[in-house]
Amino acid sequence: MKTQTVAQPSQIISAPLTLALSKGRIFDETKPFLAEVGIAVDGDPETSRRLILPTTQPNLRVIVVRATDVPTYVQYGAADFGVAGADVLLEHGGEGLYQPIDLKIANCRISVAAPEDFDYANAVRQGARLRVATKYLQTAREHFAAKGVHVDLIKLYGSMELAPLVGLADAIVDLVSSGSTLRANRLVEVEQIKSISSRLIVNQAALKLKRAALQPLLDAFERVAN
Ligand SMILES: Nc1ncnc2c1ncn2[C@@H]1O[C@H](COP(=O)(O)OP(=O)(O)OP(=O)(O)O)[C@@H](O)[C@H]1O
Ligand SMILES: O=P(O)(O)OC[C@H]1O[C@H](OP(=O)(O)OP(=O)(O)O)[C@H](O)[C@@H]1O
What we know:
The chain is an alpha/beta fold. The chain has two domains: 9-106 and 197-225, D-Maltodextrin-Binding Protein, domain 2 (3-Layer(aba) Sandwich), CATH 3.40.190.10; 108-195, Periplasmic binding protein-like II (D-Maltodextrin-Binding Protein, domain 2, 3-Layer(aba) Sandwich), CATH 3.40.190.10. It has helices spanning 25-35, 70-75, 86-92, 120-125, 137-147, 180-184, 204-209, 211-225, and strands spanning 17-21, 52-54, 60-64, 81-85, 97-102, 108-115, 130-134, 151-155, 171-176, 187-196, 198-203. It has a six-stranded mixed β-sheet. A five-stranded mixed β-sheet has the order 8-7-9-6-10. The structure holds adenosine-5'-triphosphate and 1-O-pyrophosphono-5-O-phosphono-alpha-D-ribofuranose. Adenosine-5'-triphosphate (ATP) is lined by residues 22, 24-26, 66-68, 85, 87-88, 106-108, 175, 177, 196, 198.
């Protein structure tokens, strides 16, 4: 990721825009993209309960939503654009969204993991029916269907690593980055399904109706990403 200095923000946003971000890594890792065009967010979602944050550019505000909700806000036009992980976009389906830029942030992978003492390869070979816990039902369903593995999927909303430790599931489908969460819970990654990074997503109608306002920001995001 490289940064450059370009035009003053007052010159570049010609209509009111709303950017949807989730707090944590997406918020933190999006800040350098805004800094590229001289914009800073006024407020910190880690310490503030405010969900609408102004920025140093009067025509840009940030809304703070759950990571899984970012595509929904953008799809319905409640936000003009946003940043969402490919994992979240795969589950959402991408309807109504234009996905122009891979920002190459929040990099990880979505994988199958199982307890160290579970012979996953053998279970698959023998055609066993596996119980798999995940919040990524769509991705998991497609992955196992493509392999011809029969699975019962159990929907969870977090802490997937716990499920095999207490007998809820044989395996999980979850995000892996450093691998430390798996190691801490004596799980091993048995299959990598897909590399994940975050994308800029834009409401398709906003792209047409607010193109002049959005384009300089899209250009700046593209410059920083590449
Ligand atoms: N350990 C990780 N390392 C790198 N990127 C990650 C990691 N975990 C998640 N991500 C990426 O960052 C995105 C946001 O993750 P984050 O942990 O902030 O939200 P979340 O808790 O998964 O979402 P929600 O609050 O909706 O359940 C994920 O969708 C994924 O693309
Ligand atoms: O391989 P690792 O580096 O351990 O990262 C993987 C963990 O990160 C994600 O969780 P979450 O976003 O809740 O965890 P984090 O914010 O603490 O990374 C994911 O659901 C894993 O639990």
